[in-house]
Amino acid sequence: MIDTHAHLHFPQFDEDREEIIRECENKLDAVITVGGDLEDSKKAVELAMSSRKIYASVGIHPHEAKNYSEKDYDRIVEISKSSPKVVALGEMGLDFYRNLSSKEKQYEIFEMQIEAARELNLPVIIHSRNAGKETASFIRTKFKGIKGVLHCFSGDKELLKAALDEGLYISYAGIVTYPKNSELRETLKYVPSSRLLIETDSPYLAPQPVRGKRNKPAYVAYVAMTIAKELGLSFLDIDRMTSLNAKRLFGLSLTEEEKKERLAYTVGNKLYVNLTSKCPCSCKFCFRGKEDFILGYNLNLRREPIPEEYMYRIKNPGIYDEIVFCGYGEPFERFDVLKKVAEWIRKMGGKHLRVDTCGLGYLITGRENILDELKGLIDTFNVSVNASAPEEYYEIVRPKFGSGSWESLLKFIKDAKRKGFKVIISAVNYPGFNEKAFIDLANRLQVDFKIRNFKRFGKWEE
After folding, report:
1. Among the listed residues 161, 190, 249, 175, the one whose alpha carbon sits nearest the alpha carbon of residue 459
2. Which residues have CB under 8 Å from 197's CB, separation 6+?
């Protein structure tokens, strides 16, 4: 687990800093101690040099902007280059709550640090308080090619949209655990798994179970537990996802296991089987081509493994609540492998097999007997329809088969239901999605439906 934002060099830790650092080294993978001005950043760098698991950022907080000017640009660069343990610039940004520096000065120093990050090729850590609209506008106009994280996200939807559109990460701190912050927890559903981070902002903002105490990096586990509960995932899922995301953003070394392309992977107690990276659809909302790492796994296969490789990795399929053929691409692109692996899973005691599909199996395989071949192997088809009418379907899903795809999709759904499979149709509630019409379609087809939250992997308009 990685605490992506702490202030271990602050005086609140003077009395027991060595003890806190030992705890970090024993319980966490890494901690980033974040600078607030240039002298403070030097202390952060010095502390990072003393421990293998502590890293530092160099930055000027908006409160301190009044004490700096563009003449300090070279100092930022110099301090950042002073140690390989510097992994980011920040925290920087806009704070119109206390206004300890003028707005003009805050903008000036924010932009200066963005230019330094561009030169140094480092990600940035962004602070925004009572300045959501202004920070969103700044990100949209100044962040081309800049990586970074919106730290201690507080729930501003316009800011969330701008950050995700520009490829930034979103970090949640202890405030997400506070009972009154249900609206903040709701925003978790819209953040892609590949962009989620966790932090403490210690010594401040202690999570609810230890509220009122001095915060410390180990308490990041409480943040992870709250997020896991909200998203219906396990604590280990959140640990895996956020740790990998932090390493990717801040340039920390990935383990060989983290780098590995995943043929099979677990989420909770479900096993997912990733057969291919190919898909006949190019859905406007899809992560394919934008992200390789989803749910803490590298899912973009550069080759197509043989069935025996899946059998070797799955080993004991009977231990899982459900086994789902779903990954980076469309399972029916490798129908023969799907069938062979499913047969082996059944033989080895696997239960509750599901295929998540675009529903174009007939067109992909050129055959209409495929459902008969899967009888007794697959229990459920979750068909990603993502539309309620042909016009909407072709605009959003964009199947390569063109005209006739909608009709083939509906035939697959009807045939699967008639042949005794459980069928669920699903959709993403992207901007402009007609939820009522989609539910009406499910009712006409007499199948269950599921509507998934839209997650921004880039500007929807583009």
Report:
1. 161
2. 4, 149, 169, 170, 171, 172, 242, 245, 246, 249
* Contact present, 4 and 124 (Cβ < 8 Å): no
Domains of the chain: 2-255 (3.20.20.140), 260-452 (3.20.20.70)
Type of residue numbered 399: P
Does the predicted model carry a pTM greater than 0.90? yes
> For 234-271, how does the pLDDT look when each residue is reduced to its tens digit (9 = 90+)?
999 999 999 999 999 999 999 999 999 999 999 999 99
Residues 6+ apart with CB under 8 A from 251: 87, 123
Q: Please, how many CA atoms are within 13 Å of residue 347, restricted to the half-sphere of its CB?
A: 9
Cα separation, 454 vs 400, whole angstroms: 23
Element (H, E) at 313: helix 307-314
321: left (phi over 0), alpha (psi -120 to 50) or beta: alpha
pLDDT digits (tens, 9 = 90+) for 303-323: 999 999 999 999 999 999 999
Sheet hosting strand 2-6, strand order edge to edge: 2-6, 30-34, 54-58, 86-95, 124-129, 148-150, 169-172, 196-198
Q: Which token pair is 383?
A: 């068909």
Structural element, H or E, at residue 316: none
Burial class (CB in 10 A: 0-12, 13-18, 19+), 145: exposed
Between CA 408 and CA 292 the distance in angstroms is: 29
Q: Could you count the other beta carbons within 10 Å of the beta carbon of residue 366? A: 7
* Residue numbers in the chain where pLDDT is lower than 70: 462
Maximum Cα interatomic distance, the chain, rounded to a whole number of Å:
73
**Residue 157 is encoded by which pair of tokens?**
């939807």
**Two structure tokens written together for 106:** 């805050």
Burial of 216 (C-beta count, 10 Å sphere; 0-12/13-18/19+): buried
